[in-house]
Specification:
Helix content is 46%, strand content 4%. By secondary structure, it is mostly helical. Helix 25 packs parallel to helix 28.
Length: 818
């Protein structure tokens, strides 16, 4: 591979970068200054900080409170060690500093809880492995520490901290999203719709001017990847370039929004948010055999342009919303799979802890996904940053504890809890199927207990007949259903065995969203919660989703922390624009609104001049705003992992566009052990199984979302392994060879035209004369050098063209959109 790598890197003619990018793989296309490095996206550090602090509040502080504070708090801190403040932890006690931020192995605190030191803590017994891992991860992250409460300060030695609660009451995101007046701007010539007026107003304040429009080839490539995750075909590009009608751009957008590929693209964005996976992960990585039905529901909902408020309600309480038809009822039941998708400690022996951990995970995905709030931080104490109290948390906990998510056990090397699955069929069909299954199980039990060989033989024959008479199994889905309605007592320090006062389940109190509201005694409260979140008057729901859509088109949200609109999140760069979009999105068409239509929102954004700007980096503007906070240009963006893979399949002519279904084997078991996952399919990446702890390596290399957690914004890294994947991956090599075959087998073309065809299929443009000349020289030179090892001229020619097409795939220009 080294020999091939040298020759691939020798081509530098692809968009000015070629596979020379493999030697220094950072960098967007050459229009951007500093091509040797991709700038860290604005807000990325804030995203990381917010997640680290959230991790501390949700995991570390409760653990310290449960295991350590009783003995290690001022004024009687044993061994001189006070663990109530970060400064005191860094100072340590008589044994020295307790932690070395970033170095778990070198930290005394970690050593003593691992029982690797002469001092072993806590004295009552070693912590559980997952608790030790929490402390290790905390130190590895640099030991982030949240806002210290007055109680902590009293027990510590640092300065007093100001409570954030008063600030939270007036925080921007908790205020009603009213539609502001569209500003009047000097650059009226540039304004195509109200979005541009808000953007122009901000630019004028900063002394900046917007970029010119991008050329048509750039625009259609940008739009096609944005809406479908696939490259435009050469025919689609030429049709748009040559369309002289005044609504040519609108026709492109409408065509893309009508494509089934749209739902696959934007459904995948949503699957990031709801931590979609086809396996459980954690201690027992059991396959989710029916998770794909929820994924298909999401894709279909986007393609149908289901109103977003309806989409929200169905995922939270679809089983409580009977449809007009059986199909609609089954669809809504399937939607609740969102609440079952999370990772679970299936081998947990403490059933109550398992249930409450599942409840906590559900609160986390619902609050972050729909409202951009980290409510789960209030499990052990009042939220340190946002106006969410522990009572608010347990009001929500009662709703989800009254919901059946886990159901029964799955015996496999020990006691393992199982998630809820529901059949989608008429009651009498389900009853017949269940009764037959029970009869089969009873017979199997009789056979196991039978001692007489003749009787056992007869029973086995009877069992075979029973199994042959089995009625068709109805489709099963991962879904919740109503459980026993119950309230939950406050768990002191998050411990389910140390209880405080009971909190009536219901809607939490929130500034801008009204006082807390209890729910009826015999209902879980999920439907009430769903209606509350999906209300147009809710201050967060509309803002959060339009911000997610904006981020999908511009690479960065108006709020750069899409899952955190609380005090730890970043402020919006264009607050009036965000409110105008949110209020317009949630308003009815009779009020000049979009009626919760995501497709109309896409259309509105993409018809703006702001979206159609070029990505050229004008030096004077770049000097003032290098991170493009004020949107003076379109920021170049690297394609997501799925789009890179799918674009290779599309360019090579191998993409299988069939929709839906599962690529998992029919048997189920432990992913990676009992079940081997085959990722060789040519289906779109959204249909590849997502295995927790075993994500397909081609996707993982390019920052695929972590399926364990809510991911509203993926990290964008530039690391050497990405170059190695493009150089050595069997998938990349295979697609390069298939594309080379496609190009070489094209009839009535000479080699110049074949080079042009390869460029059009991968990069959406024709090569320059220099690029064509250098490519032909390379092909000839490479073929000649292969003569010593490959006597067959046809094979030498194919190998040379394969290396050339692989160069195109590996180029920055292929992996970035301008």
């Amino acid at each position: 591979m080294k020999y091939k790598g040298i020759w691939i890197a020798a081509i530098a003619g692809v968009g000015g970068t070629g596979l020379a990018a493999l030697a220094a793989p950072a960098g967007p296309p050459p229009a951007v200054p500093r091509p040797a490095a991709v700038p860290v996206p604005m807000g990325q550090s804030a995203v990381t900080d917010a997640r680290d602090l959230e991790f501390f509040e949700a995991k570390v502080r409760p653990l310290l409170a449960e295991k350590c504070f009783a003995c290690h708090s001022a004024p009687k801190a044993q061994g001189g060690l006070n663990l109530r403040t970060r400064s005191d932890i860094l100072k340590g006690g008589v044994l020295g500093p307790s932690i070395k931020p970033g170095d778990p192995d070198g930290s005394l605190l970690v050593q003593v809880v691992r029982f690797q030191h002469s001092v072993k803590m806590p004295p009552q017994g070693k912590m559980a492995p997952e608790q030790i891992q929490i402390l290790e991860e905390w130190v590895r992250r640099g030991a982030p520490w949240g806002i210290e409460s007055p109680k902590d300060k009293a027990a510590g030695s640092g300065p007093k901290a100001q409570s954030p609660k008063l600030k939270a009451q007036a925080h921007w995101s908790f205020q009603p999203a009213k539609r502001p007046a569209v500003p009047s701007v000097k650059s009226r010539w540039w304004v195509k719709n109200p979005i541009d007026a808000f953007v122009a107003a901000s630019l004028e304040k900063q002394g900046l001017k917007p970029n010119r429009y991008a050329d048509r080839r750039t625009l259609i490539r940008r739009a096609t990847f944005d809406l479908t995750g696939l490259p435009p075909t050469p025919e689609e590009i030429e049709a748009f370039v040559n369309d002289k009608s005044p609504n040519a751009w609108e026709k492109v957008i409408d065509r893309l929004l009508a494509s089934s590929r749209y739902g696959e693209r934007w459904g995948r964005h949503w699957l990031d948010v709801v931590r979609y996976s086809d396996s459980n992960g954690l201690d027992w990585n059991e396959v989710f055999a029916y998770a794909h039905r929820y994924r298909d529901y999401v894709i279909e909902s986007f393609n149908e342009d289901k109103p977003y408020n309806q989409f929200v309600r169905e995922q939270l309480a679809g089983d409580l919303m009977p449809g007009k038809t059986d199909a609609e009822t089954y669809e809504r039941i399937t939607a609740t799979g969102m609440l079952v998708m999370g990772p679970k400690l299936l081998a947990q022996q403490d059933r109550l802890k398992l249930v409450m951990d599942v409840v906590d995970e559900q609160i986390d995905v619902v609050s972050k996904g729909f409202m951009g709030l980290t409510v789960s931080c209030a499990r052990c104490h009042d939220h340190k940053f946002d106006p969410v109290s522990t009572k608010d948390y347990y009001a929500l906990a009662g709703i989800f504890k009254s919901t059946m998510t886990m159901n029964g056990t799955l015996p496999r090397n020990g006691r393992v809890w199982y998630w809820n699955e529901r059949p989608l069929a008429e009651p009498e069909v389900v009853q017949t199927w269940q009764e037959h299954n029970k009869t089969v199980r009873d017979m199997q039990n009789r056979i196991r207990k039978c001692k007489d060989s003749e009787e056992k033989k007869a029973l086995n024959e009877e069992l075979k007949k029973l199994q042959a008479q089995a009625p068709p199994a109805p489709p099963l889905v991962m879904a919740v259903q109503e459980g026993e309605a119950q309230n939950v007592k406050v768990h002191l320090r998050g411990n389910p065995k140390t209880l405080g006062e009971e909190v009536h389940r219901g809607i939490p109190a929130m500034p801008g969203a009204g006082p807390g509201t209890p729910v009826a005694d015999k209902r879980s409260g999920r439907l009430e919660l769903a209606n509350w979140i999906a209300s147009p008057s809710h201050p967060l729901t509309g803002r959060v989703i339009v911000n997610r859509v904006w981020q999908g088109h511009f690479g960065r949200g108006i709020v750069p922390t899409p899952d955190n609109f609380g005090l730890l999140g970043e402020k919006p760069t264009h607050p009036e624009l965000l409110d105008w979009l949110a209020s317009t999105f949630t308003s009815n068409p009779s009020q000049s609104g979009l009626g919760w239509s995501l497709k109309k929102l896409h259309r509105l954004i993409m018809l703006s001049a702001a979206y159609q700007m070029s990505s050229d980096a004008r030096p004077e503007a770049y000097a003032k705003d290098p991170e493009n906070r004020w949107l003076w240009r379109m920021s170049p963006r690297r394609l997501e992992a799925e789009a890179i893979r799918d674009a290779m399949l599309a360019s090579s002519g191998q993409l299988d566009t069939s929709m839906g279904g599962s690529l998992l084997p029919k048997n189920t078991g432990l992913a990676g052990k009992e079940v081997k996952i085959d990722f060789a399919s040519q289906r779109r990446s959204v249909y590849l199984p997502v295995i927790r702890g075993g994500v397909y390596d081609v996707l993982e290399a390019f920052d695929f979302a972590d399926p364990q957690v809510v991911t509203g914004r993926r990290p964008v890294t530039t690391v050497s392994t990405q170059a190695l994947v493009m150089l050595n991956s069997p998938f990349v090599i295979d697609q390069s060879e298939r594309m080379a075959n496609e190009v070489l087998s094209a009839p009535d073309l000479d080699d110049v035209q074949r080079v042009e065809l390869a460029y059009r299929r991968t990069l959406g443009r024709t090569p320059s004369s220099t690029e064509t000349r250098r490519t032909l020289e390379y092909l000839e030179d490479f073929s000649r050098r292969l003569e010593a090892t490959q006597p067959d001229p046809a094979k030498r020619r194919l190998e040379a063209w394969r290396m050339f097409t692989q160069t195109l795939f590996a180029s920055n220009e292929f992996r970035y959109v301008n």
